[in-house]
Design goal:
5 strands; alpha+beta
Length: about 140
């Protein structure tokens, strides 16, 4: 997987190309610059581990977390288990999500986008947080 040059330069500047890739319950991969992942990991560790939902999330995110290094061409090598989890083949989509990236199989991304658009059209009520957001 190769990052576009604008991201590659920023990742080299931010974390010297050190990245953590883990899984997401939506069947995509989450790609964090190392400093961001360290913050997420600390938050996960501090959660009350006696709750089954918390343990599942910790096992999923921390258990699959894999450190990778961005090479000079802006590429990372993804392990077979990570690629299989997200059903990544030849066509993939990389989406920026603020402090992280999501890596999707292109067909799954298209299906999910259609689903999210349909859900947004059906759900006219916004939470307080979204009502205050000006786009």
């Amino acid at each position: 997987m190769s990052f576009p040059s604008r991201y590659r330069e920023k990742l080299m500047e931010l974390c010297d190309g050190q990245i953590v890739v883990t899984v997401d319950p939506d069947r995509c991969l989450l790609v964090y610059p190392m400093p961001e992942w360290e913050q997420i990991e600390q938050k996960l560790i501090r959660l009350p581990s006696l709750k089954p939902q918390t343990r599942r999330l910790q096992r999923l995110l921390m258990g699959h977390a894999t450190e990778v290094q961005l090479d000079g061409a802006g590429r990372i090598l993804l392990s077979n288990p990570l690629r299989e989890f997200a059903s990544l083949d030849k066509k993939i989509v990389l989406t920026g999500q603020g402090n992280k990236f999501e890596l999707w199989d292109e067909a799954t991304w298209s299906e999910r986008c259609d689903q999210w658009l349909q859900e947004a059209a059906e759900d006219f009520e916004l939470s307080e947080e979204l009502e205050s957001l000006s786009l």
